[in-house]
């Protein structure tokens, strides 16, 4: 299947996922102005990991997980962080891409929809950003940390909201995690920054 067909199937699966989770529906409307951007693939080592160990899905999340695995070779993977910040092992088993947003595979200014994958046994350190954020777990599981809030172990279908500029972090234990994340508000094109 072509990149366009694969990503069209993915954006439809992502929309169905959004529509099926009340927390995501309450966070933002699904963009109605999406335009295909024909963005080239940017391969990273994470493709091998997401293909071999995508993590356990629920019956509800399996269509999106499978669409994400199929799309993995066709997307513009990013790291944003440097080896000095997070280490080589982290960079080898982590990646994210912008499915929809100001610089996504589908363009919109109203929302940012990103996908992130982390292998098992990684510490994603404290970081922050201006836009408000909601994580949803598609497959696998991880421990989510948020300043002044209890740690939460999140599994497929679970969500967590991160307020503007609130430091948060994540730890994977024995499982990897595959997430779909929404941003809203000012700064949609920003990169997260490690907390000082
Ligand atoms: Zn965040």
Task: Write a concise keyword list for the protein shown above.
alpha+beta; seven-stranded mixed sheet; five-stranded antiparallel sheet; 6 helices; about 200 residues; binds zinc ion; about 25% helix
Structure, described:
The termini are far apart. By secondary structure, the chain is an alpha+beta fold. The longest helix is centred in the first third of the chain and has 18 residues, at 3-20. The chain is built from six helices and twelve strands.
Write the layout of secondary structure elements.
Elements: H1 3-20, H2 22-27, E1 35-36, H3 46-52, H4 62-71, H5 83-86, H6 88-92, E2 94-101, E3 106-107, E4 112-118, E5 123-128, E6 132-140, E7 142-146, E8 152-154, E9 159-162, E10 168-171, E11 177-184, E12 193-194
Helix pairs in contact: 1-4
This protein binds zinc ion (ZN).
Zinc ion binds at residues 129, 133, 162, 168, 192.
């Amino acid at each position: 299947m072509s990149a366009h067909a694969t990503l069209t199937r993915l954006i439809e699966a992502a929309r169905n996922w959004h529509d099926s989770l009340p927390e995501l529906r309450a966070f933002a409307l699904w963009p109605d102005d999406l335009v295909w951007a024909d963005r080239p693939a940017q391969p990273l080592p994470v493709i091998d990991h997401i293909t071999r160990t995508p993590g356990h899905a629920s019956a509800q999340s399996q269509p999106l997980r499978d669409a994400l695995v199929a799309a993995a070779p066709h997307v513009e993977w990013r790291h944003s962080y440097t080896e000095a910040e997070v280490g080589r092992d982290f960079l080898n088993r982590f990646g994210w891409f912008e499915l929809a947003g100001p610089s996504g595979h589908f363009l919109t200014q109203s929302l940012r929809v990103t996908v992130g994958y982390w292998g098992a046994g990684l510490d994603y350190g404290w970081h922050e950003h201006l836009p408000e954020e909601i994580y949803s777990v598609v497959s696998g599981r991880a421990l989510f940390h948020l300043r002044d809030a209890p740690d939460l172990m999140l599994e497929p279908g679970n969500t967590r909201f991160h307020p503007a500029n609130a430091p948060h972090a994540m730890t994977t234990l024995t499982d990897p995690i595959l997430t779909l994340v929404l941003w809203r508000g000012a700064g949609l094109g920003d990169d997260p920054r490690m907390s000082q």
